[in-house]
Amino acid sequence: MNTTLQSYFSKYTEAAPLAVFRIFFGIMMFISIVRFWGNGWIDKLYIQPKFFFSFYGFEFIKPLGQYTYIIFFICALAAIGVALGFKYRFSIILFFLSFTYIELMDKTTYLNHYYFISLLSFLMIFLPAGTYFSMDARVKKISFQKIPVWTIDSIKVLLSIVYFYAGLAKLNSDWLLKAMPLKIWLPSKYDIPFLGDLLQEEWVHYMFSYTGLIYDLSIPFLLFYKRTRLMAFVLVVIFHTLTRVLFPIGMFPYIMTISVLIFFEPKIHHKILELISRLFKIAKDKFDTGKVLRLEKKKALVGVVGFFLFVQLLLPFRYLLYPGELFWTEEGYRFSWRVMLMEKAGYASFKIVDGETGRRFLVDNTDFLSAFQEKQMATQPDFILEYAHFLKKHFESQGHQNVEVYVDSYVALNGRLSSQYIDPTVDLGKQKESFKHKSWIIPFKDEIKGL
Q1: Burial tier of 80 (Cβ tally within 10 Å: 0-12, 13-18, 19+)
Q2: Strands 12-14, 146-148: parallel, antiparallel or unpaired by DSSP?
Q3: Looking at residue 81, what is its pLDDT?
Q4: What is residue 3's predicted lDDT score, i.e. its pLDDT?
Q5: Could you count the other beta carbons within 10 Å of the beta carbon of residue 324?
Q6: pTM over 0.85
Q7: Tens digit of pLDDT for each residue in 177-221?
Q8: Is pLDDT at 375 greater than 90 in this prediction?
Q9: For 216, how many CA atoms within 13 A lie in the half-sphere containing its CB?
Q10: Sign of CA dihedral 140, 145, 148, 153
């Protein structure tokens, strides 16, 4: 076993796939930031709101008012640096820090693909993506055409985890037996040309459910196997094009489509680099030195990357530590590649009570939250708790005494009838946030079988 591992970690391959990945990753990230800025979302999501929901343990990370634009500007510059391979290590670290800061500023905007980009950029810190076909290689006049094979395989493994775990998450009774939540979402796309009428049919909802499951579970294996790789890439293009048409998920379909190119042989990437060379009049032959990169602190790098990937394998299963239905409590739901598995709708009405006199009044959530924030808050227990703590502090600062906070909340999950969500007799102002189970969530009145 040790001999096999030693043999694997001693193998080298062409650096072209990693260079192409770096270039496309940087370009896609730059476009994403420009798109976000151009649509006015920085102002709408991070400047206009009066209150921001924090990730547990990262409460100190908040938007910086008008200075928030600087963070996005830095992130965009770093993305350009990554694409060009200009001071690559500095650029990718700066991108990881700035992008992750943006992601952590408000939990309301959490998306799986934001999390994926943070993970990917962190992984790229430890990979020699700037040693070939880069400004660094050109300036230093040292280009390494061969790099350790594990540096490319680590990205393949991360991509495979994302796909495969998304497939495992679909192995549940709502998805397989009820075609939920697609049965709710697809009919609303009636205005899509050619597909609109079909999307009203129940059999189409089940077809989409099962093909999505099969796709996610099989695509990593099809990409790894040379004979099925081209077919797999065609499936990737079709799948992500369709998801882009049907659902407003931003740049994610393009990012995933471009990312899976790394599974192809180096000769494909050399052709891509040759095309880039012709377009920008770059002398590619100056990078093709045949030199082999011997990594310093190889064991440490392998250890860090190996531990990172091991954590990604385990983290999605942390929900097993909690009682109750995952889709209902959402304890362990985030950061687990559970993509588009549920439709939750609800409302939460907060009541402020003087614990001694019994005087009470209802809170108008629109005084503190945007419509988007209120919608997210109403169906997620940790949001409800954080908002209750905010209300307690706010009204105490206004001179109210003995403040207690109660919520009357109802939630509907995947087409079920709405039912009470949070125990209305519990003073949320006294409940502390932690990784422990939130016992004040009213148990789910149904059962969703599966992983």
Answers
A1: middle
A2: antiparallel
A3: 98
A4: 77
A5: 17
A6: yes
A7: 999 999 999 999 888 888 888 999 999 999 999 999 999 999 999
A8: yes
A9: 20
A10: positive
> What integer is the mean pLDDT of 323-341?
94
DSSP codes, 318-380: GGGGS-S-HHHH-TT-TTS---S---EEEEEEEEEEETTT--EEE--GGGT--HHHHHHHTT-
Residue-level pLDDT at 107: 95
3-class state of residue 400 by DSSP = coil
Q: Which two tokens stand for residue 238?
A: 């079709």
Q: Can you give the residue ranges of every domain in the chain?
A: 15-175+213-319, 343-430
Task: With beta carbons less than 8 A apart as the criterion, state whether 157 and 309 touch.
Answer: yes
Residue 209 pLDDT? 96
- Which residue has 């059962």 as its token pair? 447
Q: How confident is the model at residue 1 (pLDDT cuts 50, 70, 90)?
A: low
So what's the pLDDT on residue 203?
95
Per-residue pLDDT for 159 more than 90? yes
Q: Is the Cβ–Cβ distance between 136 and 88 less than 8 Å? A: yes
Alpha-carbon gap, residue 84 to 284, rounded angstroms: 14
Nearest to 183 by CA among 166, 213, 203: 203
Phi, psi of 172 (to 5 degrees): -135, 160
**184 and 128 Cβ atoms separated by less than 8 Å:** no
100-134 confidence digits (pLDDT tens)? 999 999 999 999 999 999 999 999 999 999 999 99
Cβ neighbours around 219 below 10 Å, total: 24
The confidence score (pLDDT) of residue 10 equals 87
Q: Going by C-beta distance under 8 Å and a sequence separation of 6 or more, which residues neighbour residue 257?
A: 236, 237, 240
* Three-state SS sequence of 73-104: HHHHHHHHHHHHCCCHHHHHHHHHHHHHHHHH
C-alpha to C-alpha distance for 433 and 382, rounded to whole angstroms: 7
pLDDT given for residue 298 in this prediction: 83
Whether the CA torsion 320, 325, 329, 333 is positive or negative: it is: positive
Backbone torsions φ then ψ of 68, nearest 5 degrees? -60, -30
The secondary element (H helix, E strand) that includes residue 116 is helix 112-124
Query: In whole angstroms, what is the distance from residue 433 CA to residue 389 CA?
Result: 10
